[in-house]
Amino acid sequence: MRSTGRPSKTSGETGTHAPPDAPLAAFDRAALERWLAAEGVPSYRGGQILRWAYQRGASSYEQMTDLPIALRETLASRMPLHLPVLEERLVSALDGTRRYLWRLADGVTVESVGLPANDRLTVCFSTQAGCAMGCAFCATGEGGFVRDLGPGEMAQQVMLVGADFGQRVTNAVAMGQGEPLACYEATLGGLRLMNDADALGIGARHLTVSTCGIIAGIERLTDEPEQFTLAVSLHSARQATRDALVPAMRNQPLPRLRDALVRYADSTGRRPSLEYALIAGVNDAADELSALVEFCRGLLCHVNLIPVNPSEGTAFESPASGRAEEFVAALEHSGTEASIRKARGVDIDAACGQLTQRHALRTESDVDRLV
Which of 86, 92, 186, 349 could form a disulfide with 354 if both were Cys (CB 3.0 to 4.6 A apart)? Predict the structure, then answer.
């Protein structure tokens, strides 16, 4: 079913359930319209609020001049409009990638990354503050898990990065901090705000959910009406190696994960991508390649090979020169499309697995703030 950019009946039934009095960033469209309905306010006001909040970047309800004054006053007192505060922005001298540290209304910090490429702008946004997955090669979980983000807190990251670049965001990927399917309702609410024509208006196929492989979440995503894209962090097709690299997924066996991916591809007609961080001496040996080829055989998918990025506190290293190309050749020979992901923003620790918020500890004089 093709997304229209507006909420479907299904999205209305399964939207997030924000507390009665909570910041606007805690609401997706469905929850916002339920709140308005409970106050006796017509649902079309929800679209007006979204346009002000996400298309015009309003910082107060006073700016929403097409809303009745009484409604603006009610919203201001019961649904605060908070925008993330930029604490730091780093710009890569290599490729123009920008890394952002945002402070949210409760003081929690999260990161996002802007990736420019000609006329395209991709935003890598966070779905949680911190991460509980504990992937061995990833620095993001070093500080532990803090909390889930609200749908609007996800969409605000995308909106603000686009504003900083001064261009429309064409793609957004839930590949920042956190496991998107561990906060399923909020993530879907955030994606729907990004897709909503009254909010960010990004096409559903240009919105990607990246997961470590939570099978129940993949199965739910399969049945959603929108055509969101799925990426799965596989990293090994051998159970023992995968369990060591992604310990939180030890209860998600590879045969069941593959079955879920087959159903996803068959039901949606869309091709999931498999992310594979290639690590010297860990998952780049011949038996690992053979297992990966067999896992992918007959499965509609695309393999993204990612030579591991350096990260403080880990001893993992990228494979020998040419090894990633050998993986690509073997996969393509067996009928599986594969490519090597080019690292972006490595000089500012903005590449895959490098988001740590460590730069939040720098002094005030180091901070590059947006005005």
Answer: 349
Task: Show which residues are catalytic.
Answer: 111, 352
pLDDT in tens, 205-244: 999 999 999 999 999 999 999 999 999 999 999 999 999 9
Which candidate, 171, 178, 218, places its Cα nearest to that of 195?
171
Q: Which stretches within the chain are classed as H helix?
A: 9-13, 29-38, 44-50, 69-78, 151-165, 184-195, 215-222, 239-245, 254-268, 286-296, 323-333
Q: What is the pLDDT of residues 144-188, one digit of tens each?
A: 889 999 999 999 999 999 999 999 999 999 999 999 999 999 999
Q: Of 366, 371, 367, which Cα lies nearest the Cα of 163?
A: 371
In CATH, 85-366 is 3.10.20.310: no
If you compute the radius of gyration of the chain from its CA atoms, what whole number of angstroms results?
21
CB 28 within 8 Å of CB 189? yes
9-78 has CATH 1.10.150.530 classification: yes
Q: Where do the structural domains in the chain lie, given as residue ranges?
A: 9-78, 85-366
